[in-house]
Amino acid sequence: MGTKDIETAIFFDDDRRYADLLNGYIFDGKQVIMEKQLYSQDTRETGKSQKDSWGVQKRKKIQRFRDGVKRVAFGTSFTIIALEHQDKIHRGMPVRVMVEDALSYDRQMKKLQKQNREKGVLNKKDYISSLTDTDVLTPVVTIVIYYGEEPWNNSKDIYDILAHKDLPEEIKTFINHYPIHVLDVRRFTNEECFQTDVREVFGFIRRSLDKEAVKQYLKEREEQFTNIDEDAYDLIAAMTDTKQLQMVKDKYRSEEGGINMCKGLLDWVEESKIEGKSAG
Asked: Which pLDDT tens digit goes with each residue over 146-165?
């Protein structure tokens, strides 16, 4: 996504927004996760695959990068929650998420195995796995945030992209689906469950193809859009491909240091109408 990748990374690097996104999407607005429960996590997922080529074993390094990832504390328990941002439908996303999640679990497992061997805590029955009966892995959750215009109607699990049509029904029941979680921003109508400017960003993007709906939304949220944070402004401009907003940002900068997006967007709406009439 280029610039869009950068803007989403900057916007959700803020722990308040990250927590708000999770509270809104997972807990339907309940304030379950606070900023202090979030811990930074390496966005790289690495591993090694082993293959046999003509009797010679070779190890191939695998590396993937997450768009965002945090370690979330729930009392004494933790969950790793990762974000993947998409502006276009990715048919292979179930495989991508499955691989990234698997690499995360593999890295955790290898760390435990190494610690157990170094501490000498393994008994005879543990030698195959190098894991003890009390060893556990941290759960991994991946959320795909999709900003595109077309609905994400397929590729929501790996079963959607498998050649299973002519297989016996008995075999089909044994195939793992590996579903993914897709937050489809333009069709997510409950942005009021958010408490930070995630609400305004998602709310605007959802309405961005309807200029009258945009105009009405700006009036309803005039206070918020009159001094919106620059990161939010940049993300809206990037995800709606409104180059005019990116070019005139300084023109609408407020005294408080934010952006008077209300004024900037209303000008954009009016200019779009004039351009439309000229083209017609």
From this structure: 999 999 998 999 999 999 99
